[in-house]
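User: For a benchmark we're assembling, each entry needs the component sequences followed by a predicted structure for the full assembly. Here are entry 17's components. Please fill in the structure.
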Amino acid sequence: MTLIVIAIVAIIILFVFFAYNSMVSARVRISEASSQIDVQLKRRTDLIPNLVETVKGYAKHEKDVFENVTKARASLMSADTTKAKAQANDFLSNTLKSLFAVAENYPDLKASQNFMELQEELSDTENKIAYSRQFYNSNVLDYNTKLQTVPTNFIANIFHFQPAEFFAANDKDKEPVKVSF
Amino acid sequence: MALFILFAWTVAYVLGRATGYGPSIGLGIFIFSIIYSFVSYFYSDKIVLATSGAQQIQKKDNPELFRIVENLAMGDGIPMPKVYIVDDPSPNAFATGRDPKHASVAATTGILERLNKSELEGVLAHELSHVKNYDTRLMAITAVLVGFISLITNMFMNALWWGGFRDDNERDSRVQGIYFAVAIIFAILAPIIASLIQLAISRKRELLADASGALLTRYPEGLANALEKISSDPRPLRTANTATAHLFIVNPFKGNGFGSWVSNLFSTHPPIEERIKILRSM
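Assistant: Structure for entry 17:
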């Protein structure tokens, strides 16, 4: 009889062991994915000053556009929570759309080697941000699912695991793009 | 997979009992097969890359291909694999490597010319999924099992021919007789059955790689279009051989001339129409 009790206790302990470890691994993967996103966001903010200077060289008078881009960049660099980063990232994308729309008016600018390279780099960085977001979100999905499904949710409650945030901005907070020539 | 292992063990046990040597010799041969396959497993990627004539490239040699692979690896959270190009007009691609840390991905010049960016992404996502799902490791294990079954049936047939049976204390000689009969049937059929199972596993993993790739790109139509384009090209791959056929994205042997049911049974890949249908239904 005692053998059965010991076996049951052992099974329970093993289960707690494995479940706890899987939750911790999922959480660590999320923070790794998050720093991946940060690396790409930093790449993007690093490319911006160069881009602004290049465009200024050909289109000095478009002050509003430059101001918006610089403001957006500053807000992205100072963002600390996941939601703030997502919002700032989207805001920056919108201001950049205006910048590139304005650049359409200046054929010399469009043809310049510097501008084309920067455009390509920026576009690649945006792809990379998209993919690292995807990876981050799939890890968050995995972790949050573990948090809520039986049987791992028992472990989650006992050890106070908190749900993680998806990398997404709220729809109503996105700035509409105002393109004016 | 588990059924395959069970099958292999059953064959070994029956043959062991039939020859009177007992199941222990089965274990010995099993261990030998494992060691043999371990070595080939660790060097398999180098062998495959060498026999296909692949050239490694850096970012500056083909930035578009490099960037696509880089971004897809980031989306899957695996380290960036080495990128190779094979100079061959037939459109095809493969991935090899025992785990994501030691992975390589190759594409032919034919495929790079013919596909647009989203189709190429679909193909490369499929290849990277093979790496992520540890398919090389899985196929190496099945190769061990197939080899083991072949070895053991071979030994049995040899024993039959040269009379290597041992007189032992098997009390009921009728039981031994039954084992003997079943063993002969197994010896003839087992290698074929093993190969068929191996091919079935390969086909299932191909469908899994299609699905994982579509999950990665969130755009199954890309791979579907790519498969359509590739299947319309009649040229077979110059450097393909049966050992590496299962690695490629489509069967590198085209125009077999078999009856289509038979060639499907012996194919390492599911039929392209089925793959396209599944992708488009996602």
